[in-house]
Amino acid sequence: MTKLFQAFQQTNHQLVGHGPRNVDVLKQAFEGINGDVPSDLYGNGRVIEEFQEKIASYLGKEAAVFFPSGTMAQQIALRIWCDKKGMKTVGYHPLSHLEIHEEDGIKELHNIKTILLVDKNRVIEIEDVVNLKEDISCLLLELPQREIGGQLPSFETLQAISEYCHDKDIKLHLDGARLWEVLPYYQRTAPEVCSLFDSVYVSFYKGIGGIAGAILAGGKEFTEESKVWKKRHGGDLISLYPYILSADYYFEKRKDMMGQYYEDAIELASYFNKCEGVKTIPEIPVSNMFHVHFEMDIDKVIPILIDIYEETGIGITSNLRKTDNNGCYTEISIGDQYREVPQDKLEAVFQKLKEKLV
Amino acid sequence: MTKLFQAFQQTNHQLVGHGPRNVDVLKQAFEGINGDVPSDLYGNGRVIEEFQEKIASYLGKEAAVFFPSGTMAQQIALRIWCDKKGMKTVGYHPLSHLEIHEEDGIKELHNIKTILLVDKNRVIEIEDVVNLKEDISCLLLELPQREIGGQLPSFETLQAISEYCHDKDIKLHLDGARLWEVLPYYQRTAPEVCSLFDSVYVSFYKGIGGIAGAILAGGKEFTEESKVWKKRHGGDLISLYPYILSADYYFEKRKDMMGQYYEDAIELASYFNKCEGVKTIPEIPVSNMFHVHFEMDIDKVIPILIDIYEETGIGITSNLRKTDNNGCYTEISIGDQYREVPQDKLEAVFQKLKEKLV
């Protein structure tokens, strides 16, 4: 545990997140649930079937399957589309979760070749898809592109990419790990966004703040096939209800909060951008998340942040990472906790940050 | 839901299992756990590390990794041993879980060829291993062999197979889904059994009665490699504590009950064997489980069982399956509920069964 993390843990308020990831998250979700509710059983039973139907309908898709993780769900989605076309090549962003956070599962388990579409610092545009030199079975778009601060293409770009892929017999898959979080910016419903995609993955432990778990949605034939692969991956557990019932609880609690988080992110980013040597990416957030870049060396920024946490009792972030140009950055995700920080305390935090960064 | 299952659900007592798989299983486990206990985080943190160390030590292995499922853990174990030897062939029983319950994940995801060692109605003996015509990287033994009633080889056979495999550079993997349950019969400790194997999988929702989850144990190099594959499979969840903390709770509650379950199984099997046209496999159980075979057609046995459930309020089993020879069978697993059935009621059940089967 780093010093920064420890100092962050000891603050009274935090600008980010929904609060600590602890057993209380589970206890709160299950408090109102009757003990005699039967477990799901290897993918069957009311608990899992009803939630799958609910989210399928919420996304405007025919069917949905609950998975323990997005890693599992997305590899399977791409595998199904590759098998359907008989071509084991897919395309995605160079900083896609599949490329950098999954130990190459897509290659090691599924033997799928991946084409990285663009330079890592920007999102995929229609030109990038049109200019692909190789045919692919499936294109994966991540909305928002998390590793570059949560940037988004325009909705018109999504429509153009969707139309192009449809014409070229390329399946379009949505990595919607933070889909709920971008709907307010697009001013679109989930079905309006999802209708552009053949398959969709959504997560329940990011903006929603559940314990873990994912939904993979699409046509019935696709989701039925995904169940077979779910069993192969070892994801068809006898009981997934600890994740499902908590996902449902926090989905209901927070699905209508995404507009609030988005506005809060815009406000908080503006505070950061007023500090010398600090900038956010995107400058104006398009979801509840953004990255904060400091032009200063990480070893200088850490003690400054720790001082502020100790002096104000407010935590800004629990971690910092170095960048290539001798600076450092952190990822900010707004949740329930931002609203709980008193306005004068917030002002004080940034007053101090401004002074100390000079 | 079948009529038999429904009738079973409505009984006051059941001869099998620990009770209904419902939300109460989770609630009971978490009742005594503080809400401020931090979640594990992608395989790290006290909650997961301490449990892994505890079970590793309980099994007498250097290290252990918690997995969401045995399906995932065992495919990974075999893959690691295949890669180590540079040969993608393994051997196991024709009714191994990997062969019949996993949609061929081992073949579809890992491209591993499987050799089925013996006729499906008996366990693997040393001769079967010696007479293998093809070299294999790993031999998987399931103790007990669940699909044939939970039969076991002798401990001397295990020792001989272990020695032979060691000499021939074949890794020996233990499918110990019901390992806890066979220790009383062998009159051996877990480390004594596990020392014969290079890697071991154990489960926490069978005799232990937890919610879900598995441990894979072995040498440190092996378990570290298994963590990489766990991520690839999509099993390295941000939070596994709902399974881990409940596994720990029920492990403590039931690990010393296995001798009792074993004795109860012997008693219950003897009741069945006194009925005309009924026999158990094994005749004398060697764990908490056995199969009951009826020589009568399934469509005749079901109404008989339902009658008994309704007349006595005691459930025997929730399901029956057809056999090849016009009979049917069911799997019995003894848990906490057997002891709760009053002796006179038990006698009454079998008195009625005897009468009705004539």
Automatic annotation (TrEMBL), chains A, B:
Keyword Disulfide bond belongs to the record: no
A GO CC term assigned to this protein in UniProt: cytosol
Domain Aromatic amino acid beta-eliminating lyase/threonine aldolase intervals: 40-291
SUPFAM superfamilies per UniProt: PLP-dependent transferases (SSF53383)
MF terms in GO: L-allo-threonine aldolase activity
Presence of the UniProt keyword DNA-binding in the record: no
Keywords: Pyridoxal phosphate
GO aspect biological process, one term: glycine biosynthetic process
Cofactor(s) the protein needs: pyridoxal 5'-phosphate
Family: Belongs to the threonine aldolase family.
Name assigned to this protein: Threonine aldolase
Source organism of the structure: Salirhabdus euzebyi
